[in-house]
Amino acid sequence: MIVNGSSATLDGSSTISEWLSSHGYDPSRSAVLLNGAVVPRNKMGSVALSEGDEMEIVSFVGGG
Q: What are the residue ranges spanned by the domains of the chain?
């Protein structure tokens, strides 16, 4: 699969939430575009990933 323009592997992850968590992202603070479509945060735990997928991730960081 492709993540943010770079090749990546699923590493046993089956859903977007699992992949994000296992790669240091906080699913509750991330926005995901999967194969050109926005994935609602409440669906990330049920959307399965496949080797041919393309995923873009944007993480939100608070600050002041």
A: 2-59
Residue ranges with strand state E in 1-64: 2-3, 6-7, 30-34, 37-39, 54-59
Q: Answer for the pair 59, 32: CB distance below 8 angstroms, yes or no.
A: no
CATH for the stretch 2-59: 3.10.20.30
- pLDDT tens track for 9-37: 888 779 999 999 999 999 999 999 999 99
Q: Provide the b/e sequence for 40-49 (b: ≥16 CB within 10 Å).
A: eeeebeebeb
Q: Given a cut of 90, is residue 5 above it in pLDDT?
A: yes
* CB 54, CB 30: distance < 8 Å: no
